[in-house]
Specification:
It catalyses: adenylyl-molybdopterin + molybdate = Mo-molybdopterin + AMP + H(+). Pathway: Cofactor biosynthesis; molybdopterin biosynthesis. The structure is a single chain. By secondary structure, the chain is of the alpha/beta class. The protein contains seven helices and 24 strands. Helix 4 packs parallel to helix 7 and helix 5 crosses helix 6. The longest helix has 19 residues. The chain is elongated and about 105 Å long. Bound molecules: ligand LQZAQKY5, molybdate ion (MOO) and magnesium ion (MG). The site of ligand LQZAQKY5 has 27 residues, from helix 4 and helix 7.
Length: 428
């Protein structure tokens, strides 16, 4: 008789992973370019005003507004050009009454000037003077020191993802080296006698090991460092030794395959021989119901399903938040949003379904539809999926036009806790 497993609601399973497992938070300082797509390990606070000086937003002439107060078509005002400055050059001295400085975008406003006239609105004379035929109020066309931000302003929080905008701020404030969270190492082992190396030709009964590379990409996207432990046949001794090594060497251990109840499914035996503390071995979700989570002395061990769809979902739901937490990210879970179902799901399912889906927009309405064959064992539908459509388990199906929750894939902002409003069934 096969062991009866007790399925945990997804919310509870995620909660227990975060409660009972830990990945240490470590920080390091890395050269700037290595910090992009990493997570900041310190708050970024402006240590100077931006811009750091009053500057011209246009190519033109810096002048004293007072000089132009009476200027008009019938009363043109002539100003003497006493200098020329481009960005990076500072005009030495003070600009006096009746004088102007030719100034380019980004150059510091010369002392004495309080306005800039764009090149297009002045007449340049051949005798070194310009003529203006309208007044320029004080402060016209000036980008003021500190208008972007003031010294001392908190700008980006510790745990933020270093996207291009954050990179711009880091450079602005002189971060040659950037304090970032150390990427936790995640060991990945594929178990299965049917598995071929990626480079091997197909032979009868065998398939290529796609899960390991999928997980590696997911780990990278989450902010971790994948460590490849290859693939092994369904042999307890070999797999046990490999997992023991992984437990010594990496922060998080992942196996894929053999998580179910079959003759060659080794995860249950591995849990026993390793003396691991099992957190769950069944979750009330499809795919991914056979996901196993355990820890050995606190070190996380995930036995993800061999079915690619189930393996993918298990990694996104359980591994990703652990990685993100060790990076001190603010929102460690997939971002939740809402969309309108574009197809029917008439068959009720006792477990919550997480359907690989494509998000699209039509007349301002966001719609979701499956990205392909939605079987746990299908791999092709993963390629185009940009969301997981959440269909809570229960006794009813879902119809096109209904609003449903979705989890966005490959998105950096994340959700604090996307599970609250999702009803899940605990029926096995
Ligand atoms: N009697 C039952 N059978 C099954 C149950 C069950 O509850 N009772 N659960 C089903 C569910 S749900 C899933 S999901 C799968 C889980 O299977 P395992 O985690 O044990 O994985 P395997 O048996 O090793 O392989 C399943 C499937 O996936 C392919 N696979 C395995 N590894 C890889 C890899 N690295 N890359 C690509 N594909 C992989 C493998 O060839 C199999 O086709 O169990 C159901 N059965
Ligand atoms: O774990 Mo299985 O994926 O429910 O399909
Ligand atoms: Mg199996």
């Amino acid at each position: 008789m096969v062991e009866k497993r007790l399925p945990l609601p997804i919310e509870e399973a995620v909660r227990r992973v975060l409660q009972e497992m830990d990945v240490p938070v470590r920080t390091e300082s890395v050269p700037f370019l290595d910090a992009t797509q990493r997570f900041l390990a310190a708050d970024l606070v402006a240590d100077h005003d931006v811009p750091p000086f009053d500057r011209s937003p246009y190519d033109g002439y810096a002048l004293r507004s007072f000089d132009t107060a009476q200027a008009s078509r019938t009363n043109p005002v002539r100003l003497k050009t006493v200098g020329e400055i481009g960005a990076g050059t500072v005009f030495a001295g003070d600009v006096k009454a009746g004088e102007t400085v030719r100034i380019m975008t980004g150059a510091k406003i010369p002392n004495g000037c309080d306005a800039v006239a764009m090149l297009e609105v002045v007449k340049e004379e051949s005798d070194g003077y310009i003529t203006v035929v309208r007044p320029f109020a004080a402060n016209t066309n000036i980008s003021f020191q500190g208008e972007d931000t003031r010294k001392g302003t908190p700008l980006v929080k510790k745990g933020s993802y270093v996207h291009p905008g954050v990179a711009a701020l880091l450079a602005t404030f002189g971060y040659n080296y950037v304090p970032v969270a150390v990427q936790p190492t995640v060991g990945i082992l594929s178990m299965g006698s049917e598995l071929l190396e990626v480079g091997a030709p197909l032979t009868p009964g065998k398939i290529r090991n796609s899960n390991a590379y999928m997980i590696a990409a997911q780990v990278r996207q989450a902010g971790g460092q994948p460590v490849m432990y290859g693939q092994l046949p369904d042999d307890l001794k070999l797999c046990e030794q490999a997992v023991r090594n992984m437990l010594e060497e990496v922060d998080i251990v992942i196996t894929t395959g053999g998580a179910s109840v079959g003759d060659y499914d080794l995860v249950p035996q591995l849990i026993e021989t390793l003396g691991a503390k099992q957190i769950f071995n069944k979750v009330a979700m499809r795919p991914g119901s056979v996901t196993t989570a355990a820890h050995v002395g606190g070190k996380p061990f995930f036995g993800l399903s061999g079915n690619p769809g189930a393996c993918f979902v298990g990694c996104e739901l359980f591994v990703r938040p652990l990685i993100r937490r060790s990076l001190q990210a603010q929102n460690i879970h997939l971002k939740k949003s809402k969309a309108i179902l574009a197809v029917d799901f008439p068959k009720p399912n006792p477990f919550t379904r997480l359907v690989r889906g494509i998000l699209s927009e039509e007349d301002g309405i966001h719609k979701v539809a499956p990205s392909g064959l939605d079987k746990s064992g299908s791999v092709i539908s993963l390629a185009e999926a940009d969301v997981l459509i959440m269909l809570p388990g229960g006794t009813r199906g879902y119809q096109s036009g209904m609003e449903v929750d979705i989890l966005l894939l490959g998105e950096q902002q994340g959700s604090e806790w996307p599970w609250k409003s999702v009803a899940v069934s605990s029926k096995s």
